Amino acid sequence: IDILHGVKTGKQVDVDLENQFEAQEKYLKSPDEMASIFEDVPELLERTQEIDQKCNLEIDTGQVFMPNFECPDNKTNEEYFEFLVWEGIKDKYGEVTPEIKERVDFELDIIKKMHYATYFLIIYDFLAFCTDHQIPVGPGRGSAAGSIVAYALNITKLDPLPYNLLFERFLNPERVTMPDVD
Has residue 69 got a pLDDT over 80? Predict the structure, then answer.
């Protein structure tokens, strides 16, 4: 936890190897461990159980939940995503040939059908922040390099067209898994 806090705040953390016991205690304890710790104050455990009985949380693990992404000009995520992609395509290629248009349309169609526009916007936003703040990022690797959309958004730095890289290795509607940008 101290190291995570140090990463968050940008401060160095001194690791005290002689006092690692404290760090070993930072975890969720079992009910038996808690009963042992609070055996002198049983009413605390009773109150905890009361609170537990009043809580009802169900998490749908069969669905992917994306964070909210605020788009400018009251655009939907899909509209803003498509706008950024076409702006990126114009910047990268200048002239949009039929081959480029067909490839972009193909990828956009799949990404939107699979509801991953927000995912791409979040990655785009992270990488734009890094670029704006001189935080080094790599050129992208793995199957994401097969996406002209990722290239247009500067998620990857490799144009997939000259190398005939396949988008379907990155995102395939027949294999419903989250895209993985390395």
Answer: yes
